[in-house]
């Protein structure tokens, strides 16, 4: 097996909470050396606010404490940047410039540096200086409007779409593209990622619907199917639910055959009132068995029916187990890289660093600090 794909890539991570750390966690899983730079007093807020989440998204990283409000620490950062490939930060636009270590300054130190700025609204525009969280970005991107039941109020999802997909993964993609470019040209770049931007870009179906109909679909009606009864959610006898996604006619015919109801195939497969007869019939049918009984009955029928699982149930799904997506570490579940490579053995990342656990070793290696210098920096509070 070859070495991990990002072996030899060094990442300085100044981010905190969820989006930035999740981005750099993906890079760590791909083999990059990720050095997490934290404030000496307390470090990443997530250490205290959400310790289990902190552990999940910071495994396999190193922790160095550095107070960038002190000029000595800024000079240390510049020394580290000279030996790095990537820097990720998630401050509001202009903060790093005020500290004396913005992109224009750091690229003079290292022209091949890929500098990723992950923010809520990007580096430009009227909202660039606004505070925000996942729900705000989903609201502005039109995503929150589409979440919830028809004729109801928007519902907040437990999945952080903007933080994780619109922000973290979009930023990771930008970083990887920029690293490839820097390796070819010797010139780095500023990667400007706004979580609103990334979330809006994921709205391909909404945009296609607007292009087709001139407007988006109402909340609670699936944009892909248009509210078809054969692409919907149904309650079962045990109060749990199944997702019937027999969108193509062949899958619905397979379903009708498997449940012994060929008569259902003769009912109109249309959205709205025209499909109410089929929707009502399916509602009655699904309540005759439990969710698990339906899954067992339809497992080999090629009809796109799935039980709706809780997150806890999803961890022990046989497909999830077979793919090795979840494993136990210290008696608790953790997730590993959800990508498989045919000729590369991506090492399992383990262990979450204590605050500042690697400060002395990393600064000696990257900034040339000896014991005397480290002691002086610690005394000043810079590390």
Provide the descriptors you would attach to this structure in a database record.
single chain, 383 residues, alpha/beta, Rossmann fold, formyl-coa transferase, domain 3, 2 domains, 6-stranded parallel beta sheet, 3-stranded antiparallel beta sheet, 17 helices, 13% strand, elongated, CoA-Trfase_III_dom3_sf, CoA-Trfase_III_dom_1_sf
CATH superfamily of the largest domain: Crotonobetainyl-coa:carnitine coa-transferase, domain 1
Low-confidence stretches: none
Strand-residue fraction? 5-15%
| Rg over alpha carbons | 25 Å
Query: How many helices does DSSP assign?
Result: 17
| CATH topology description of the largest domain | Rossmann fold
Overall pLDDT level? 93
Shape: elongated
Class by SSE composition:
alpha/beta
- The amount of helix comes to 25-40%
So, CATH architecture of the largest domain?
3-Layer(aba) Sandwich
Which CATH class of the largest domain?
Answer: Alpha Beta
Sheet with most strands: strand arrangement: 3-2-1-4-5-6
Overall description:
Keywords: Isomerase. Its EC number is 5.1.99.4. This is Alpha-methylacyl-CoA racemase. This protein has about 375 residues and is α/β, with parallel strands linked by helices. It has two domains: about 10-200 and about 330-380, Crotonobetainyl-coa:carnitine coa-transferase, domain 1 (Rossmann fold), CATH 3.40.50.10540; about 230-315, 2-Layer Sandwich (formyl-coa transferase, domain 3). The protein contains 17 helices and eleven strands. Strands 3-2-1-4-5-6 form a six-stranded parallel beta sheet, with helices on both faces. The chain has a three-stranded antiparallel beta sheet with strand order 7-8-9, with helices on one face. It has a two-stranded antiparallel ribbon with strand order 10-11. The two termini are about 40 Å apart. The relative contact order is 0.14.
């Amino acid at each position: 097996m070859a070495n991990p794909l990002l072996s030899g890539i060094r990442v300085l991570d100044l981010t905190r909470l969820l989006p930035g750390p999740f981005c750099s966690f993906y890079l760590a899983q791909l083999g990059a050396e990720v050095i997490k730079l934290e404030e000496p007093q307390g470090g990443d807020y997530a250490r205290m606010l959400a310790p289990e989440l902190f552990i999940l998204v910071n495994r396999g990283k190193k922790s160095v404490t550095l107070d960038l409000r002190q000029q000595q620490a800024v000079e240390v950062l510049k020394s580290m940047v000279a030996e790095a490939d990537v820097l990720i930060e998630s401050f509001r636009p202009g903060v790093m410039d005020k500290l004396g270590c913005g992109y224009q300054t750091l690229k003079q130190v290292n022209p091949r540096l890929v500098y990723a700025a992950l923010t809520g609204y990007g580096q430009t525009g009227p909202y660039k200086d606004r505070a925000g969280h996942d729900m705000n970005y989903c609201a502005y991107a039109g995503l929150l409007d589409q979440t919830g039941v028809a004729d109801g109020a928007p519902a907040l999802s437990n999945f952080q779409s903007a933080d994780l997909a619109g922000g973290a993964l979009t930023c990771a993609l930008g970083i990887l593209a920029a690293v490839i470019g820097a390796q070819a040209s010797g010139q780095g770049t500023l990667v400007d990622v706004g979580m609103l931007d990334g979330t809006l870009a994921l709205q391909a179906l909404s945009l296609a619907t607007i292009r087709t109909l001139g407007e988006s679909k109402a909340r609670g009606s699936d944009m892909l199917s248009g509210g078809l009864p054969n692409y919907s959610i149904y309650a079962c006898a045990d109060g749990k639910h199944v997702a019937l996604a027999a969108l193509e006619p062949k899958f619905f015919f397979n379903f009708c055959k498997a449940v012994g109801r060929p008569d259902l195939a003769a009912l109109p497969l249309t959205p709205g009132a025209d499909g109410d007869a089929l929707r009502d019939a399916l509602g009655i049918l699904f309540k005759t068995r439990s969710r698990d009984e339906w899954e067992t009955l339809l497992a080999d029928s090629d009809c796109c029916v799935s039980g709706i699982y809780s997150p806890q149930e999803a961890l022990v799904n046989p497909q999830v187990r077979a793919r090795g997506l979840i494993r136990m570490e210290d008696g608790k579940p953790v997730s590993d890289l959800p990508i498989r490579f045919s000729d590369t053995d991506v090492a399992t990342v383990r262990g979450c660093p204590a605050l500042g656990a690697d400060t002395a070793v990393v600064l000696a290696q990257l900034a040339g600090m000896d014991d005397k210098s480290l002691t002086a920096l610690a005394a000043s509070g810079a590390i």
